[in-house]
């Protein structure tokens, strides 16, 4: 299953040159560059782990791509995304966010049906990756290295 979250998620994987171009677009707009990763890609898991601190003073996209590649080396079986944060006073929100790396095997989700009182039926998504504990979901051990 190919998980679709963020911008460009319906497209084929971005090349490094395309990632660099998107990061440079954000820098040119005054946005901060952040790299995040997770092994739990559930749509409601919006707080991924930070790879170092966001770079508010970035001038060149090469530094952002360098951090993406360092994160790929440390977590080859995790989802990695780039978040370009717009810090302007009237915005202070995500300007652009896209996945730049995926695990080789994406297990997908299960739709769980639950019947409760008064014949109410609820549905929720459960990630197959959560069948194993954090850090063991994609056949690797937990690394304590988190960037900077």
Extract low-pLDDT stretches: none
Count of DSSP strands: 6
**Strand percentage:** 25-35%
The secondary structure category is alpha+beta
Q: Would you tell me the overall average pLDDT?
A: 87
Q: Name the helix and strand elements from N-terminus to C-terminus, one letter apiece.
A: HEEHEEEE
Widest β-sheet, arrangement of strands: 2-1-3-4
Q: Give the terminus-to-terminus CA distance.
A: 32 Å
Counting H and I runs of at least 4 residues, what is the number of helices? 2
Helix content: 10-25%
Radius of gyration: 17 Å
The biggest sheet, with number of strands, parallel, antiparallel or mixed sense and barrel status, is: 4 strands, antiparallel
Shape assignment: globular
